[in-house]
Amino acid sequence: MTAMVRPGAELAECIADAVRAHPAVAGLHGGPSGMVASYLPSGPVVGVRASVAGEPVELAVVLRFGHPVPAVAAELRAAVRRLAGPVAVDILVADLAEAA
């Protein structure tokens, strides 16, 4: 069962909000050459490539140093799947930032 995407919001925007809310995530990143993005009428959502629920999702994130990457990746995948359904979620850790 998937969570509801908030009314008026695109899937990519909701995923971006959920990913940024994770305490180990310092931010989203465009990935190599800025290719990880969703282009919406309201503007690009950099760091998330997602079209519709049920389709694969790609993330590019900057993580805070000191968090175990495999655990964070599993938590981010679970958060994305709550919104997009049982989809493949590819995660690129584009950079590390100092712990907050």
Short description:
With 100 residues, this protein is of the alpha+beta class. It has helices at 11-20, 69-84; strands at 25-28, 37-40, 43-46, 48-49, 57-64, 89-97.
Tell me, what's the shape? globular
Sketch the topology as an H/E string, one letter per element: HEEEEEHE
List low-pLDDT spans. none
Amino-to-carboxy terminus distance = 34 Å
Helix-strand makeup class: alpha+beta
Q: Kindly state the mean pLDDT as a whole number?
A: 91
At CATH level 2, the architecture is 2-Layer Sandwich
Indicate the percent of residues in helices.
25-40%
Instruction: Please give the count of helices.
Output: 2
Number of folding domains? 1
- Overall strand count: 6
Kindly list the characteristics that best describe this protein.
single chain; 100 residues; alpha+beta; Alpha-Beta Plaits; four-stranded mixed β-sheet; two-stranded antiparallel sheet; globular
Describe the structure.
The longest helix is centred in the last third of the chain and has 16 residues, at 69-84. The chain has helices spanning 11-20, 69-84, and strands at 25-28, 37-40, 43-46, 48-49, 57-64, 89-97. It has one domain (11-97): 2-Layer Sandwich (Alpha-Beta Plaits). Strands 1, 4, 5 and 6 form a four-stranded mixed beta sheet that branches. Helices cover 26% and strands 31% of the residues. It is globular and about 35 Å long. Strand 5 (57-64), helix 2 and strand 6 (89-97) form a beta-alpha-beta unit. Helix 1 (11-20) runs antiparallel to helix 2 (69-84). It has 100 residues and is α+β, with helices and mostly antiparallel strands.
